[in-house]
Amino acid sequence: MTAYKNIETTTFGPHLIFDAYGCPYKTLSNMELCFGILSDLADLAGMKKMTEPYVIKATSNEFMGGKDPGGFSGFVIIQESHISIHTFAKRGFATVDLYSCKNFEPESAVEYLKKTLQPRDVDVIKLDRGLKYPKQNIYK
Amino acid sequence: MTAYKNIETTTFGPHLIFDAYGCPYKTLSNMELCFGILSDLADLAGMKKMTEPYVIKATSNEFMGGKDPGGFSGFVIIQESHISIHTFAKRGFATVDLYSCKNFEPESAVEYLKKTLQPRDVDVIKLDRGLKYPKQNIYK
Fold first, then answer.
1. Which UniProt keywords apply (chains A, B) (predicted)?
2. ipTM associated with this complex
């Protein structure tokens, strides 16, 4: 192994964090829409899906003091990263992650998500992940 | 709908972001270990798995200028949130997300991940997600 401290590094990739409040009930209770968002975001970020998106309905009420509103949870593995969504229709809340090893335009993804989820308010964070990702393989 | 501005809000939950550098090749090239991390972290955070963890091997070399080292990508949906891992054995890099609607001890998760992945260096961020999550349902 090359001594870790002597290797050239780069950034692994961007991670867009998107939380949406006050989305319409009708929008968030649409399972197919969740599937579509996962698929569209992959295309929008120019990433290849390694699998088809996977969406489940979570109806458990065991947590949050029995006040869990339930919702949809979905996920798609794209090349070496992922996109996820969790929706809670009764709370008007959706939370999305778009983590990619390839640069993409966060603005386009945010615009798409706002148009699709129709929130009244959003929180958006863009992180750079893997700040010390090696430019080359460190093992043969 | 209750006017969104008049509703009581809380925080949806913590999101632990963990990037690990200089992990041993043998550790990161162990698919079962990736599966185990997803399972263990759910238990450690006291979260119920909605599905079994799902891990795939990504061998595509189409991106990063054909220098993609490939790796494992895994994911498990826990109650209304998720845990993910992506490993790149040849680069010694692993990137983990633990996003939960339930409070957990990030320190325990970080300690577990350090012990399991044996990195030389890490970046750790803890975010609070869903800062305006409604305390009650806003739709009936």
1. Autocatalytic cleavage, Decarboxylase, Lyase, Polyamine biosynthesis, Pyruvate, Schiff base, Spermidine biosynthesis, Zymogen
2. 0.91
